[in-house]
Prior knowledge:
By secondary structure, the protein is α/β, with parallel strands linked by helices.
Amino acid sequence: MKISLVIPVYNYEKRLNEKVDFLLNYFGESRHDHEIIFANDGSTDGSMNILSKLKAPFKVIDLVTNHGKGAAVKRGISVASGDYIFFTDIDIPYHLSALDTAINHLKSGYEVVLGSRELPDSMSACTRPTDRRLGSKVFSFLANFILIDKVHDTQCGFKGFKKHAAKSIFKDVKSDGFIFDVELIYHAQKQGLKTILIPVHLIDDSESSVRFVRDSVVMAYHLLKLYIRLNTGAFYQFVRYGFMGIYNTLLNIAIFNLFIIASGISKGSW
């Protein structure tokens, strides 16, 4: 059994060596055959210089120009060869013991594992700012309201898949930015893949750049765009029926008034 861990990287030069050492130490004590795939998302600092010097078990992909976290994860997934494929963030925000929990579930028949900070057994070694927690809750509520079902922490940066599920889901994911998390959940549910939520232990939230006031409108906008794209047929059907309803109403008014003029039977204004 082999696992693949995909990690997107963007302008992380200052702490990149620290995280590389952390991963080497963790997997050095692990019994799992593994590969760690860094997907450089067009970093403009020295991140790629550091990544280019890495050897196995690391693989490095360079997107050259910045496209967004979703694009980097998709590229990493496309080259992953593990039986079980995971992705997380470069700051390694969650304790990697979640890998063992997830693998046990994948072995037992589940095809998709989603980390969730909202589960009762989830823990946190750091305090998440109120605006981040509020932003995450509001965004997940909206996502569940219009697109997905019963996933109340869509943006948790730990997700895992059986290989066939990862390849199947990500071939349909078109989003490149942060919204890709919602889209991959949507496709997993649409494809009927057996999914489970697992608790996570948050150990580092220092690199998150989400701010509720600043980003809430942008997040809602991208969510609406995603909804329209994924429901193009239903959206245009709604527009078509709306147009026909207005057209028929105006036509009926015109015919009614023509009868009034032709018959001379009228009372009051048109």
